[in-house]
Design brief:
Elements (H helix, E strand, L loop, with lengths): L1 E2 L5 E2 L19 E3 L21 E3 L4 H7 L2 H6 L22 E3 L19 E5 L6 H4 E8 L2 E9 L7 E4 L5 E2 L2 E2 L1 E7 L11 E8 L1 H6 L7 E5 L7 H5 L3 E4 L6 E6 L12 E6 L1 E2 L7 E4 L10 E7 L4 E7 L2 E3 L5 E4 L4 H11 L2
Parallel strand pairs: 15-21
Antiparallel strand pairs: 1-2, 3-22, 4-13, 5-15, 6-17, 7-8, 7-12, 8-9, 9-14, 10-11, 12-13, 13-14, 16-17, 16-20, 18-19, 19-23, 20-21
Length: about 350
Amino acid sequence: MRRNDRGGTAVDGIAARRPARGSRAVLGTLTAAGTLLALLLPTGPAGAATPLNSHRSATPQRTAAAFWTAARMRSATPLDLAAPARQHRTAVPRNAPLTVRPTLPGLPSLPVPRPTAAAQPGGPWTGGGAVTKTAGRVFFTYQGRTASCSGDAVTSANKSTVVTAGHCVKLQGAWHTNWVFVPGYHDGQAPYGKWSAAKTLSTPQWTASEDINYDVGAAVVAPLDGKKLTDVVGGQGLSFNSGYNKTMYAFGYPAAAPYDGTKLIYCSGTTMKDPLFSHDHGLSCNMTGGSSGGPWFTSFDEKTGTGLQSSVNSFGYQFLPNTMFGPYFGDDAKNLYNTAQSS
């Protein structure tokens, strides 16, 4: 971790920075869990119309993939960003639970995984299984800077949907460019290819005001060598409106010390509900910058490496070390997923 010039600690690729809504500043630094981009300025005019919740890439697939050489992927590092201000705790709409089963290449769907529990505050994932293919690093550029987050391939109708954090697709009015997903990434290697986004999406709340409660993003990636993403790496299941205080496993590619972004890291344990400024899940976890957008699973089976994605790495409080927070997957996350998979 590194301290920024306002006393906060940077732990991510892109901070979940939000405009002030309350009369008091947050008592401590609220930081994100992806790859921070320094001194980002809003690009949209004041009073602009309601922003679009998706963006179609103008960069050809081969161009984006070629841009991300092994050297560029290794050098995509977290950068500091000023801490955001406090925001009202908006309620997250909830409805009936919905479960989507995981799939593997050549198989229609798998049973809902059986949960396993083993508390882990952070360390390399050595268990193998499907997660080593479905989870990956996300790379993109913003105002000429290179940055990274994490993401996960999920079961979807278009077989091309990646779930990540909202700030890993858009920040302060600007959609990221040269966006690629590299499943199974390891130290500059792309064993399953570099999948370029044809379209990136986020929730209306994140797009409009960067509400931390809705820091969820998605990408629809283009086919690669005539094949679709989940036909190659498989897709994890999903769970929406599944409640709080669950046994969860979190995965990601943290790139800030003590990690270096070269390998898949995980945390596990029982979640809590954020008692402070959001409605997010909280988990004991020491992942750092670059892990934003990495998947959180309920019903995770260590033997098969499959689970039901129920959140993503989003942010952490500077005054509450070694704790990661992730948005509740309610109706808005479900709507985002349905929009992405039908694209």
